[in-house]
Amino acid sequence: MANKKKVIVTGFEPFGGHAVNSSWVAVQELEKLGLGEAVDLHVCEVPVEYQAVQDLLPSLWKEPQPQLVVHVGVSGLATTVTLEQCGHNKGYKRLDNCSFCPASQCCMDSGPDCIQSVLDMETVCKTVNGSDLGVTLSVSKDAGRYLCDYTYYTSLYLGHGHSAFIHVPPLGKPYSSQDLGRALQAAVQEMLKILELDPQHNKHCNHEQHHHHHHQHDHV
Fold first, then answer.
1. Is 17 exposed, middle or buried (0-12, 13-18, 19+ CB in 10 A)?
2. What is this protein's function per UniProt (predicted)?
3. What is the dihedral of CA 163, 71, 57, 77, to 10 degrees?
């Protein structure tokens, strides 16, 4: 099929206390399941390094442009599969796997403080939770000001909002890798359905300025 939808889903490499990063394990499970015949799914593992993210992400968004890029990361605090609504530009003080953080502590020097996904994560969450998946989803507006948030903001910026970020708990807390793979499949399929139903999603990008209190998270 020449008109297959191109979707890219990424997970992160191990870091800190996460000797195995459940995000990449979950993405590999999703790859086994696939997203159906009409979707050309590509997966890749992202280093937990600011500079590597800056180098890698433009290549993910190059032509032929994906319809959607979904980044998956682990959160030691999460007990649900958490859909992130927005990415943040500033506040990157935590050192990465190379003991580096951006001198400016921000993603894009002239970028807005916050960029929203064109997808309404509450809608995705409600639909998937209404199915009998056996995995609970929730929505967050704070992706943690580390590599997850940094990657999400960069992707939202490059992809004009056509990106999503999903935080998963560590393996076995409480979900298995298979559970997480099924949750990713359900969430991404619902996101694609929303993009298909509402062509307006392809025409605008919400750059909203948000300031909210940040809590230190054990997030990528």
1. exposed
2. Removes 5-oxoproline from various penultimate amino acid residues except L-proline.
3. 120
Query: pLDDT, tens digit, for every residue of 129-163?
Result: 999 999 999 999 999 999 999 999 999 999 999 99
Distance (Å, whole) CA 21 – CA 170: 7
Residue 218's nearest CA partner among 13, 15, 5 is 15
Helix (H), strand (E), coil (C) string for the chain: CCCCEEEEEEEECCECCECCCHHHHHHHHHHHHCCCCCEEEEEEEECCCHHHHHHHHHHHCCCCCCCEEEEEEEECCCCCEEEECEEECECCCCCCCCCCCCCCCECCCCCCCEEECCCCHHHHHHHHHCCCCCCCEEEECCCCCCHHHHHHHHHHHHCCCCEEEEEECCCCCCCCHHHHHHHHHHHHHHHHHHHHHCHHHHCCCCCCCCCCCCCCCCEC
Pairing assessment for the beta strands 114-116 and 81-84 based on DSSP bridges = unpaired
Predicted TM-score (pTM) of the model is 0.90
- Catalytic positions are 84, 148, 167
Tokens at residue 81, please? Answer: 């599969």
* Distance, CA of 103 to chain centre: 24
Cα gap 205→67, rounded to integer Å: 14
Q: What angle do CA 29, 130, 165 make, to 5 degrees?
A: 45
